Amino acid sequence: MKMKKTLIAAVMAVIMLIAACGCEKDPSDEAAVDYSKLPALELIGADSTGKGSAGQVFGMYFAQRVMEITEGRLSVGYHPNGELGGDLDLIRQMQDNKIQIVVCQTAPLVSFVPEMAVFDLPMIFSRFDGDKIDDVLNGRNDFRTRLSNAYEKAGLHLLGFLQNATYRLTTADRDLSSLEDFRGLRIRTMENSNHMAFWTALGASPKSLAWAKVYDELQSGNIEAQENAADTCYGGSMQDVQKYLACTNHILYCNQICISKKAWDSLDPIYQAALEQAAAEAVGYMRPVMADVDTYNKDKLVESGMKLIEYEESFYDRILALDGVKALYDTIDKKQTDGLGTLLIKELNR
């Protein structure tokens, strides 16, 4: 299955745009650091995102800025689109320091950092804008501190989160205009028990499946639906095998970037600061792009023949009132994250 030429062109345009932004940066702050006295090092970075997705562009831009900031002394050999394995494989390799940096969405990390289940709370971010969410996820507050500490316990070091109040959507071969339409829906989701519990609470029949197999399974009718961000949906040509694009907005479309703690602890503090700077700049440049990418890909999916389904606020209220969803909230907050969900809500409403 080949990605459409129009999407490739759009993604390359985005990459060229943010590359140009990087070249125009004022070098005065970087010039104050003498990197020539540090040993030249290469870190290995990877993702398993879809081709042309925001996660891929985010990782590539980060790698570019690391090279520029350190005047080529520290580099990141970046491998996108699952070249080095799927999300779980990449994270395991990172824990073993076989690769050093991984960009991925939040869900796969739950198996390694249980506190990351806080991102599985359905629709917890849906009433807040991108600026507010960024303040909480990347700012200095109790929530970010607790989450960073959880990464450290898992042998990882958190560098940052990329989002802009865009969300995972649902594509399906049936009209999902009402909550009742989800009953019995055979939907592919990521390998995450909380995500599966959410869809089960809606009456659907979730199935964990590798992304590489999703198109063929949809085409054959073995599954009826899948959920992903708009760029991944269009990059994966969901419009060719699905009729409906439903704005379920159930999970924040959020990519994180982290590094092996073994690698982090071995680096000179000057290199550590360069990585933190590159991550912060990558988030800053990509956030507005996220919104543009979301709009662009939704439009392309609709132009390709998909019907867009949007919901009133009451639809989300009905979902949050379901017994199974309320039980999931309670389980994630109290049992899986030791009150981190409550802390997140507090910081979001501050």
Characterize the structure shown:
The chain is built from 14 helices and 11 strands. The strands form 2 sheets. Strands 7-6-8-5-9-11 form a 6-stranded mixed sheet, sandwiched between helices. The protein has 2 domains: 5-23 and 37-113 and 129-164 and 255-292, Bacterial extracellular solute-binding protein, family 7 (D-Maltodextrin-Binding Protein, domain 2); 169-251 and 297-348, Bacterial extracellular solute-binding protein, family 7 (D-Maltodextrin-Binding Protein, domain 2, 3-Layer(aba) Sandwich), CATH 3.40.190. Helix 3 (54-69) links the parallel strand 1 (41-47) and strand 2 (74-79). Mean pLDDT is 91; it is low at 1-12 and 15-28. The chain has helices spanning 5-23, 28-31, 54-69, 87-95, 130-138, 142-153, 193-201, 211-220, 230-235, 261-266, 269-303, 313-320, 323-336, 340-348, and strands at 41-47, 74-79, 101-105, 156-162, 169-172, 186-189, 205-208, 225-228, 244-246, 255-260, 307-309. The relative contact order is 0.17.
Kindly state the mean pLDDT as a whole number?
Answer: 91
Helix content: 40-55%
Strands, count: 11
Oligomerization category of the chains in this entry: single chain
CATH topology of the largest domain: D-Maltodextrin-Binding Protein, domain 2
Outline type: globular
Report the C-alpha radius of gyration, rounded.
20 Å
Strand order of the largest sheet: 7-6-8-5-9-11
Number of helices: 14
Q: Low-confidence stretches at least 5 residues in length (pLDDT < 50)?
A: 1-12, 15-28
| End-to-end separation | 46 Å
Class computed from helices, strands and strand pairing: alpha/beta
How much of the sequence lies in strands comes to 15-25%
CATH class of the largest domain: Alpha Beta
Tally of structural domains: 2
Q: Secondary-structure element order, as H and E?
A: HHEHEHEHHEEEHEHEHEEHHEHHH
Give the full name of the CATH homologous superfamily of the largest domain: Bacterial extracellular solute-binding protein, family 7
The CATH architecture of the largest domain is: 3-Layer(aba) Sandwich
